[in-house]
Amino acid sequence: MSAGNGLRAGLIGLGAMGRNHARVLNLLDGVELVGVLDPAPGAVAPGGVPVVTDIEQFIALRLDYAVVACPTGLHEEIGLRLAEAGICALIEKPLAPSVEASNRLVEAFESRGLVGAVGHIERYNPALQSLRTRLEAGELGDMYQVVTRRQGPFPGRIADVGVVMDLATHDIDLTAWVTGRGYQDVAARTVSRSGRPHEDMVSVVASMQDGLMANHLVNWLSPMKERSTVITGAKGCFIADTLTADLTFFANGAIGTEWEALRAFRGVSEGDMVRFAIPKREPLLVEHERFRDAVEGKESDIVTLRQGMRTVEVAAAVLQSAKSGDTVHVPAPQAG
To answer: Distance between CA 30 and CA 45 in Å, rounded?
Structure first.
């Protein structure tokens, strides 16, 4: 590990997400961003950080870790080179475009004892962190259903994967993480309306452990941007809006009604609504702090490469279901 100014970090990719990573790395305590790899002619990094154009020059920067924010199709090739060079890596989600490629990355980093993580940024959203803590404390009682909606305009930056790998992987990861339940079966339908080779809308119904049901609606064809997670259970329902980092709880009411017909129709009655006050730190900054701590050998809550591979496994099952029209069983996670 480097002395002096702390950890030496490098960044691969200066696209929309890469520039956000550069901004945060330039602000991060205990870390110095010493170089950026981007093959685009004339690429300029924020803060005047030197830009190199090939992986050999990048590895020669004597890095402690790298942030990989290049297109998904390059993650395996670049990740394996970093592992061979003994460089820890925070790889943007999804980990890789296939289960096989994800597994090779997991093996490469684990076999060398290197810290590897996947940038599933929703785990660091204040609303979802608060929600997870409240679910663990039993504030909802038994969980019945998780419904996520993630839609917005088409991102011009994405060319190599469809909406399942690019966006639905957010919802797959956050649902398993927030609830602590794994996926068992998925049924999905996709359509492609934008004239591109990949799907741009998906609807998923999933069975999870302990009878929990999940629904994911994802598209990048809507002019309205929406990011919501609704979890319904025995005591009411939580709604997390990850765009605004707001968390709201609607309690099942305890007030009865004398109108028998209405009582029979309504079932659960409407109760109090609470919107929680949550400290709102930038999720990307928190993600970087956690990864920095892990590289320094501290106990830290990162999304491991193996967890990232599990999300890719579920996403692959979603694509398989959409292609075949069948419900697809999700294999049990590999040990490790």
So the answer is: 20
pLDDT digits (tens, 9 = 90+) for 131-173: 999 999 999 999 999 999 999 998 776 667 899 999 999 999 9
Residue 127: phi and psi, rounded to 5, are -65, -40
- Given a contact cutoff of 8 angstroms between Cβ atoms, the answer to whether 87 and 63 are in contact is yes
In a domain, 336, yes or no: no
Global pTM value: 0.92
Q: Strand ranges (DSSP E) for 225-322?
A: 226-233, 236-241, 246-252, 270-275
On whether residue 195 sits in a domain, the answer given is yes
Q: Measure the N-to-C terminal CA separation of the chain; round to a whole number of Å.
A: 26
Determine the Cα–Cα distance for residues 98 and 213; give it in Å rounded to an integer. Answer: 25
Q: What is the CATH number of the domain that holds 28?
A: 3.40.50.720
Distance CA 193, CA 176 (A): 29
Residue 295 one-letter amino acid: V
Residues 121 and 291: beta-carbon distance below 8 Å: no
**Within this chain, do residues 103 and 187 fall inside the same structural domain, yes or no?**
no
Q: How many distinct structural domains can be found in the chain?
A: 2
Tokens of 12: 């691969």
Domain encompassing residue 259: 125-280+313-329
DSSP annotation of 304 reads B
Are 134 and 110 within one domain? no
Q: Give the Å distances, CA to CA, from 219 to 166, 168, 194, 260, 276.
A: 10, 9, 11, 42, 29
**Sole residue written with tokens 């297109």:** 71
CATH number for the domain harbouring residue 146? 3.30.360.10
Give a yes or no: residue 1 inside a domain.
no
Whether residue 243 is found in the same domain as residue 324 = yes
Amino acid at 141: G
- Summarize pLDDT for 165-207 with one digit per residue, the tens: 999 999 999 999 999 999 999 999 999 988 888 999 999 999 9
| Radius of gyration of the CA atoms of the chain, in A | 21
